[in-house]
Amino acid sequence: TKSTCIITGASSGLGLATAKALADSGEWHVIMACRDFLKAERAARAVGIPKDSYTVIHCDLASFDSVRAFVDNFRRTERQLDVLVCNAAVYFPTDKEPKFSAEGFELSVGTNHMGHFLLARLLMEDLQKAKDSLKRMIIVGSITGNSNTVAGNVPPKANLGDLRGLAGGLNGVNSSSMIDGGEFDGAKAYKDSKVCNMLTMQEFHRRYHAETGITFSSLYPGCIAETGLFRNHVSLFRTLFPPFQKYITKGYVSEEEAGRRMAQVVSDPKLSKSGVYWSWNKDSGSFENELSDEASNPEKAKRLWELSERLAGFA
Ligand code: NDP
Question: Which one, of 271, 260, 130, 276, lies nearest residue 216 by Cα?
């Protein structure tokens, strides 16, 4: 029988390409956890994922109720969960004012970090029951949150500070809408959320790897300059960004190649080490990459975990 992988945000870009790569292997059934049910169905058909290789289940990461309903609905399928991929993300680089999730968190951190944090915490119970050879949780990271790289040093840089904004609920009412307590900046909020993703993966690894045998990993698949992630950017940026990445930075990868890379992190026995942030070199060889000081700071990871637990109602 096929193994089961949940992918959030599988209706476009990297998530869709990964779903396709896994389905094409013939060994995987993909649960597409998506906020737009019809778009996900159409996308699966458009790229030719066979009907019996996927199931779309509604999941809006910007709402805790929706995340909880997703987990219930997934459990009703009675499939054994082998791999969870936290992939979905939103990015609002040109917004002047913050938008908010159902719980009132600034929407990029609310979706990219808080929604995934709740989902991942809830599904730990399901993942632990998987066979030993295959139990993985992947949280997609990014170079942009990593200030030890050139791309990560383009201002505004990610910085979680002392997390005072998050401690206050990130709601722009009795706290800042930014994790560090500063003024709203949409591009920075996205980068901060990706730092949270990478810190969360490492904290999961520290808390649960030895006890459960689950492999926790993150990755930077390369710059996939044509995905929907840049849909909210100004049109000149959207025109120039793909050729810039192709010919100048040479960091460009196609959606198909990025999907194959993430599918490796899902299923390749060679990529089973836990706590790793994977990247790929020019020849598409995978290697264990280093994270910036902030994105690998264990005290920050612990504090982020504790605050996120409190906001998600665990503590
Ligand atoms: P896309 O915008 O193409 O895909 C993002 C997906 O997330 C879409 O399926 C979108 O759904 C979904 N999504 C957004 N909000 C929610 C929500 N509230 N609930 C559920 N799903 C939601 O972008 P990418 O494929 O580029 O991004 C995928 C991941 O890759 C992200 O984690 C991103 O940070 C990361 N990444 C991307 C890079 C790039 O160069 N593109 C580089 C490094 C990392 P819908 O279709 O309904 O909009």
Answer: 276
Whole-number Cα distances in Å, 103 to 35, 110, 153, 239, 272 = 16, 8, 31, 35, 35
Question: pLDDT for 147-178, tens place per residue?
Answer: 777 766 778 999 999 999 999 999 999 889 99
E strand spans, the chain: 3-8, 28-34, 54-58, 83-86, 136-140, 215-219, 276-280, 286-289
Q: Give the residue carrying structure tokens 């790793």.
A: 276
Question: 217, 271 in Cβ contact below 8 A?
Answer: yes
- Distance between CA 74 and CA 70 in Å, rounded? 6
Considering the entire predicted model, what is its pTM?
0.96
* Ligand 1 atom at minimal distance to the Cα of residue 144: 43
Give the separation between CA 254 and CA 250, rounded to whole angstroms: 12
- As a whole number of angstroms, the distance between CA 151 and CA 248 comes to 12
Nearest CA to ligand 1 atom 31: 89
Q: Residue 168 corresponds to which tokens in the numbers above?
A: 């206050």
Say what the ipTM of the complex is: 0.99
Q: Give 239's contacts (C-beta < 8 A, 6+ positions apart).
A: none
Residue 227 CB–ligand 1 contact under 6 Å? yes
What CA–CA distance (Å, rounded) separates 158 from 291?
Answer: 13
